[in-house]
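Predict both folds.
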Amino acid sequence: MNLRIDAPLLATFPEARVGWLVASVVPVSFHPEVERLKSGLEAHLNALGLDETNLPRHPDVARWRETYSRMGVKPSKYRSSLEALARRVLKHQGLWDVSDVVDGYNALSVRHLLPMGAHDVDLLSGDLTLRFGREGEVFQGLGDLNETVDPRQVVYADEKRVCCWLWNHRDCRDVVVSFDTRRALFLVDQAFPPVHSSPEAILGDLESLLLALGHHPEARGVLSASCPETPLP
């Protein structure tokens, strides 16, 4: 299985990068280290000077809003995963309780102000590509969401389905990380050079967190225009 960024997407978003990490995992419902991370997120964002009102003006959030506008959707309705998670935290709602693996990478996404996602490697069909949508594609997302894909919209897709819609807005329900997952592929999205952090920094923290939780990172890397494709272990 290969992970790649499609050439037409790089022509439109030449600074796009994808951080990736593959790990062997055995998800559990609760881990105190993840709860510690989650409990400190609001204070972390406040220390950066962020609140619910000014979050959309942070450069890393604002640039994702611009990116979503370029995909033909209203960014105040369809938010990047980063903004959606940070907004929940700043509204005192906290992150969803899913598992140590999912909650952990969501917490790191908020801390680093970078969108992240993850898929069950064993449920993916063939290569996974970050590309523009294609005419006739329909995205079947979590929460019974069914959306006709616009060719302006960026998606992750394997050889069978759209796995993530609007770059990182919503995951496909067929390939999510669950309690049955044993190998996970974590993804970090960059459409533009971020201000607050980097794919390399968040991948380092992700690897450390997974080890602390008792999981086993196998390999990691970053795709870009200079290296747009890699085989996955």
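Second protein follows, with its predicted structure tokens after the sequence.
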Amino acid sequence: MLARPIYEALPLMYLVLGALSIVFLEPALAKIGGLLLFMSGSITWVMRSNARRRDDFKTHHVQGIFLPEAYYEFFPFLLLGISVLLAAFYFNGPGIVFMILASLRGLQLIYLRSRYRHTANYAFG
């Protein structure tokens, strides 16, 4: 069994290691492995986040448009993934601007959602 701090940090480590692999490693197989690691980190994060929800399930609407649950949950990670791909393949003036904007918005959405989802306290006994 893993210690709690290590267990809680695993999705973040997957995301960071996947992003670093995509950006800094040259072989295509390493970039694919980084993408898989990034995706597994985002899936793990979303699964844990859903398990810790304090609010009831709600349908998500943005300006009257219905958003499927998967799109709503993975949108911050899609933005972070786009910023990683821009850093890896399009690192110049406009690419840097879009990379910063996408990563800031993705981090903002993750922060806002994490404020309402905390570790569930389970009583064992």
